[in-house]
Backbone:
């Protein structure tokens, strides 16, 4: 086996109720809210495709089937476009995931991120990637590809980390490390959503992980942590002495699309960096500021 091709599976935990975006998330999952004309989840899918991922596991709630439908063929729409506007056909046919590659897993109850990952256990047969689509990462090299390369180098669990402002530290999982070299941090402790006083560093966990299958054993204990939920951070922490955990500071810009202002920033930044919209958007911003 070509070792750089070892990781072919990604899990997208997308069962959350999107409380910060209510009321729109009553009807539209937050992962389908648009950044320009594409839903947030499509950016995550493209990031995974660029890394050579071939199996896409969506952990959804029974109410969020529209996320799956987005990636399925729409015969009716395609037939209308074929007759009326064939140039647009490419727009809807290019973002598909073939049925064989798409796995849907239902998380019946919102018991936490760790529980969501555990729900995918039957489909995991080796190291795998996890992408939290809320964290939109725009980078030259796909962020999850960078993480897979880091995994190849260290053969341990790899989690994405980034420095964040102290004031925001309690929104994240936070790492403590024994040493670092280049962009790698050798983790010795992790805390989910610590207070500012308890935070062991300002390096926060960002929603990209490469996990070894052993994580499923750690998650099967169903230990309840912060917020009364089964936390992925706690399960990863419990593997430090066996599999090892490396924090990787990725190259790229990250936008927190899990909140309204972060999603707005992502919209603006993506639009300003797109030659089709740049001038118009700058004009609108200048006008609004007057
Ligand atoms: C989750 C993780 C947390 C991580 C964050 C990154 O938290 O539990 O460790 O720092 O994603 O976005 P959530 O944002 O789902 O509360």
Residues:
């Amino acid at each position: 086996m070509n070792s750089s091709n070892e990781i072919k599976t990604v899990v997208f935990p997308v069962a959350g109720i999107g409380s910060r975006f209510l009321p729109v998330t009553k009807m539209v999952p937050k992962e389908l809210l648009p950044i320009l004309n594409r839903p947030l989840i499509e950016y995550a899918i493209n990031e995974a495709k660029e890394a050579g991922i071939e199996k896409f596991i969506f952990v959804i709630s029974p109410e969020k089937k529209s996320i799956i439908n987005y990636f399925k063929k729409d015969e009716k729409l395609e037939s209308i476009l074929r007759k009326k506007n064939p140039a647009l056909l490419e727009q809807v046919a290019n973002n598909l995931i073939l049925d064989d590659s798409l796995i849907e897993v239902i998380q019946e109850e919102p018991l936490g991120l760790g529980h969501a990952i555990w729900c995918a256990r039957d489909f995991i047969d080796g190291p795998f990637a996890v992408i939290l689509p809320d964290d939109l990462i725009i980078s030259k090299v796909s962020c999850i590809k960078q993480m897979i390369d880091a995994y190849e180098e260290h053969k341990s669990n790899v989690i994405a980390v980034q420095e964040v402002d102290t004031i925001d530290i309690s929104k994240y999982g936070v790492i403590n490390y024994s040493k670092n070299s280049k962009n790698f941090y050798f983790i010795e402790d992790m805390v989910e959503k610590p207070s500012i006083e308890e935070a062991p560093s300002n390096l926060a966990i960002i929603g990209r992980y490469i996990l070894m299958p052993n994580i499923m054993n750690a998650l099967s204990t169903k230990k309840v942590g912060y917020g009364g939920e089964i936390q992925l951070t706690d399960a990863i922490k419990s593997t430090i002495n066996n599999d090892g955990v490396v924090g990787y500071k990725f190259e790229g810009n990250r936008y927190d699309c899990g909140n309204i202002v972060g999603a707005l920033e992502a919209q603006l930044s993506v639009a300003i960096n797109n030659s089709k919209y740049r001038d118009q958007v700058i004009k609108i911003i200048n006008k609004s500021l007057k």
About this structure: The chain has one domain: 9-258. The two ends are 60 Å apart (CA to CA). The chain has a mean pLDDT of 95. The pocket of 1-O-phosphono-alpha-D-glucopyranose is lined by residues 113, 132, 134-135, 172-173, 192, 204-207, 232-233, 258 (CB under 6 Å).
